[in-house]
Specification:
- The complex is a heterodimer of chains A (528) and B (134).
- Chain A has 19 helices and 4 strands.
- Chain A has 528 residues and is mainly alpha-helical.
- Chain A has one domain (66-527): Ribonucleotide Reductase, subunit A (Orthogonal Bundle).
- The longest helix of chain A has 32 residues, at 263-294.
- Chain B is α+β, with helices and mostly antiparallel strands and 134 residues long.
- Chain B contains 4 helices and 7 strands.
- Classes of the chains: A mainly alpha (528), B alpha+beta (134).
- At the A-B interface, helix 1, helix 3, helix 8, helix 9 and helix 11 of A face helix 1, strand 1, strand 4, helix 3 and helix 4 of B.
Chain lengths: 528, 134
Amino acid sequence: MQSVKPSGHSIMENTKRAVRAPTSVEAQEVHRYLMDFKWEFEKNRTKYGTKYEMANLTKEQFKLTAKEYARMEAIKEERQFGTLLDGLDRLDAANRVHPRWAEAMKVFANFLECGEYNAIAGSALLWDSAQSPEQKNGYLAQVIDEIRHSNQTAYVNHYFSKHGSDAAGHNNPRQLRSVGPAFRGIKRAFGDGFNAGDPVECSINLQLVAEACYTNPLIVALTEWAATNGDEITPTVFTSIQTDEMRHMANGYQTIVSVINDPKAKLHLNTDLNNAFWTQTKYFTPILGYLFEYFSRYKVEPWYKTWNRWVYEDWAGIWLGRLAKYGVTSPPSLREAKQDAVWSHHDVAILAYALWPLHHWRHELPDEVDMAWFEENYPGWYDRYGRIYDEWRKLGFEDPKSGFLPSAWLIENGYIPYVDHVSGVPFCPKLAKGACDLRILERNGRRYAFSDTYGEQQFLLEPERYEAQDFLTQFEGWELSEVIRAGGGLRSDGKTMIAQPHLRSDNMWTIDDIQRIGMKIPNPLKMH
Amino acid sequence: MSGRGSSEGLNSKNGQAFIDEFLDEKNMTVKESRDVVLVLMKSEEMEVVVDDIILGEQKKSNPSIVVEDHASYYWIKADGQIVIDVDIVADIMGRSYNVYDFLVNVSSTVGRAFITGNVFTLTTELVGLDEALV
């Protein structure tokens, strides 16, 4: 590390200190003696037991005191809200966002809000579990950060709903997102992955994989897509969120430092890392690619390049690769993850279009410009997916009088959709080009579908963890309009749907148009 | 293929050529990297940090540093480490500015980042494991 040379400013500061009575103590000196105030226990008395032994000598890389933390966060808030409420408000920024991208933000802001809210609990249980005072201090700041982020993501929705052109889906998504089949995967990845089970596993899921790996495309790369598509709101908020995530990544590293010399790490760490990587990848690889590429008019780069840079070359190489000498190995699921990075977002996109009435966003089919871009970057895309979109358009995908539902078309044409029981992500084996290996398991009179062996193995190890019903089982036999009503999927007139298969304000679908079709939710598990 | 810029190396390829190499058997496991990545949220202070520190003294001592403008943020990649002496930034700006002020606009890091006094370090070294973190 280079030495700190005295600058003109530091000489001035030192002179001030020398000629005045001391009025304060340096923050890092305060941090040093605060860390000496600690309870000494013979045994860690956490209520969240872990199979690992967390060492008590780990350090906090950013040496936070309440005073410096609060000052730092206050500056962030002043800058963020100053930008949004002063400059951008007068510039009518919310109405200059490309309408497609404004719909994407209904999804991004909501699922990030879910993640941030669950991370409050995740980082709090880690605070309780850790033994090192410095490690606890880092986790404690994270608890407060996550509360801030929950507010920020909710505020993005508030801002768009107040100032943008289509409030529905920004202002009332919480009920609908709990029902929607495209949203349930977030509960596994950003929900119980963060705050249920062994605390060290939670840390690996939350801090080492979700934050150190996937927040970079989700929160950093996203801001470039946003700016390119006219969104001046999201970059200010999301890059500000990420300034805290940077400390959370350090917390995850310190979790690893605290356990890596424990002999039990040799037994468990690589398995836990592979499970966490697959858990986060299974949802984030398809959903981020889908949102970036299918909700943008102006595309920054193919999703696989973003994934290659942030996930494979940087996160895997710089985090996992450097830890190899401590026994950390390449996750076996990396092979399937890479295949998914190329194709799984297209697999999920076509199912998301098919299930459009159940979402809290509007969604237009890829047009000629999109299709040319997809085919150029994903050779073979049109033959697998594009021709289906063209056929749906001809059959009246957008027209409320057409009586056409793409989900019914899929089933009639033998494209049976399932929901992976562990990840909660819908899949269609006949359409999938990403990693997909349909597995049906019967246990205690119930049937479960899995799209891969990693999820099936996680289920077999902890079946009690996955008791919740998937969407197709829960709503089997319901008429589609009943599910939409149950989820609160209607606009304020009580008739027009929040979800729409186009972005226009005319010719919008109402609940009557859906009811008239009379589609019943099938359970594909009963077809076997 | 190697390359440090975000569109270099494998990312310079397109379409099927990219896919073939990305999914090639030799690329199916983690490859250790000694690079570090720093993401700075654009702001008045970060313009000084990028122009005068990263592209100034840091680039002189570490020519591997690459700085890219990604609309809302600066993406910076380097071999080994990036060190920001925040006292120098304060001196250039002519006002009080400490390492916690600097953290207000540090959006992301890949590598091990830590502060010591008024210096921010992002390193490939495994601090706390291979060497003590003070």
